[in-house]
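Service request form, structural biology core

Requester: graduate student, group of Dr. S.
Request type: structure prediction, single chain
Budget code: on file
Notes: please return the result as structure tokens.

Sequence provided:
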Amino acid sequence: MAVTVETLEKLERRITLHVAAAEINSEVEARLKKLARTVKADGFRPGKVPMNVVAQRYGYSVQYEVVNDKLGQAFNNAANEANLRVAGMPRIEQKNEAPEGQMAFDATFEVYPEVKIGDLATAEVERVSSEVTEEAIDKTVEILRKQRRSFAQRAAADVAQAGDRVTIDFEGKIDGEPFAGGKAEGFQFLIGEGQMLEQFDAAVRGMKAGESKTFPLQFPEDYHGKDVAGKEADFLVTVKKIEAQHLPEVNEAFAKSLGIKDATVEGLRADIKKNLEREVKFRVLARNKGAVMDALVAVSELDVPNALVQGEAERMVGQAREDLKKRGVKDADKAEIPADIFKPQAERRVRLGLVVAELVRANNLQAKPAQLQAHIEELSQSYEKPAEVMRWYLTDRERMAEVEAVVVENNVTDFVLANAKVTDKALPFDELMAQGN
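Core staff response, request fulfilled:
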């Protein structure tokens, strides 16, 4: 019998399923007989429990399983016969009326939408580029020097200055009352490196070891400590110790300490440039990929299945709980996180996924084996043992699926950039690196 599909609204459909009552009863009886061979009950030996006892104890649950199995099979058969691409799980409700000897159910569900991708030539995309400058290399060298700096105690007559590490005791009060987090002993920080509020930093500059000072400090309105944000406090600071920093010289010994194969200053700078260029490439690609995806969604028309959005939102809730668990939050798996807060982001992800899938299908943008190999090789180059990293990727299906997804996205990005209205923009290195941090 032909399947009748009723259109309810947009992507929502409904079909009626019929299951023979005799078929269900027969299957229930067969499963109960099989269960009776192993079931245990007080007063009976294993395998000798009467069928009426087995049916009384397990009949309802077995019938529930059988009906679900039969409905699942009937729904899949009906969907296939009607050539329906079902999105998400159907909602099934039993009908009051049914043909004699049968049970009838309404299955309500959504189908995948038709995706219409507009003329990519009308899509506007800003494509950025960036270069690794000598100044960027210089800054990286300085960061590496600071990571390996040493400290030596200053003379008693010396005053604290930019770059020094100071050890202090401090106590802050607001309206004469101490506040949480406003007191510490033996606290260390580096002057002039943004580790403390600017007023605090400035107050300690020029002090000597053993000296104490009281000064006012205005907390910013957007200060992370909500209890003190926007308020003025009075701080008493005592400097216990002042240490001057010593930065290592940039020479062959320094390059060697960093594990540079060509242990020269030139080799060090070349290695830094190579690493920075790799980072720039990935950041530029991510920025351009985001711009392409925005443009792609803008020129596409489709209805988004609510079932897929809800499923994605729930998956994001699971990820949020997992993140909390990694941070050591107690009972993170039970945290009340409403899925609705993720709904806008989930809707965009589903919409974008459907559009990308259609573009890939229509233009043969699937990942090719050579592309997968090249991407893994590139990823492995940032590790000490590239060959082992490549094996790590190639021997795991889940990791390979992640690589394939990235390559497909890259193919989509290249395809859209080749067909869209592109405006090129050169980004300064510092601006690119600051984004997303």
